[in-house]
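User: Can you recover a sequence for this backbone? Please restate the input before giving your answer.

Assistant: Of course. Working from this structure:
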């Protein structure tokens, strides 16, 4: 800053020197100007950083919506897959219980017997039994699907007809074929 004495020493009148000193009060010194410029630059940098952060957050908010949608989709898919797996598991349990019942009923071919059963009417109980399955009715309707023990009359001790060989009559077709090849 210029001082009044320095201005008078340069040849200015006191009035001119006072006017210049008075006008200098409105001027900012270079050091202060540099500080203000640095402060403005720093504030501008912070504003740019905030603008970048806002843009990033807006992008992430969009991604958040996408992530939320993906999460919802995955939850829906998980629920559907869980239901499908539970259904498969209950079907497998019903199949195993049905196989057990058919084995006890001496089914010749469980797969063939299953083709004659209405699976929609079946339900697996807590104890593992199959509800809605009338195996006795099925054995009467389709006896050829089951190995049914046939009882034969013992007779009166006399040979019936010619040529009693003393061999027991075969009970199943498999026994008859095996007996044929043994002779």
């Amino acid at each position: 800053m210029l001082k009044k004495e320095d201005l008078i020493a340069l040849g200015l009148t006191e009035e001119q020197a006072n006017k210049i000193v008075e006008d200098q009060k409105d001027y900012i010194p270079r050091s202060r100007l540099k500080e203000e410029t640095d402060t403005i630059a720093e504030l501008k940098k912070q504003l740019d950083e905030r603008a970048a952060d806002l843009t990033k957050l807006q992008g992430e908010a969009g991604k958040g919506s996408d992530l939320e949608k993906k999460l919802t989709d995955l939850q829906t898919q998980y629920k559907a897959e869980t239901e499908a797996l539970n259904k498969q598991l209950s079907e497998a349990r019903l199949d195993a219980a049905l196989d057990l019942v058919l084995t006890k009923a001496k089914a010749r071919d469980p797969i063939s017997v299953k083709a004659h059963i209405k699976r929609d009417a079946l339900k697996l109980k807590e104890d593992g039994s199959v509800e809605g399955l009338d195996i006795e009715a099925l054995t009467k309707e389709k006896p050829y699907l089951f190995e049914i023990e046939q009882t034969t009359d013992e007779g009166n001790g006399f040979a019936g007809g010619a040529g009693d060989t003393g061999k027991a009559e075969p009970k199943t077709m498999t026994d008859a074929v095996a007996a044929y090849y043994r002779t």
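That completes the design. The two ends are 139 Å apart (CA to CA).
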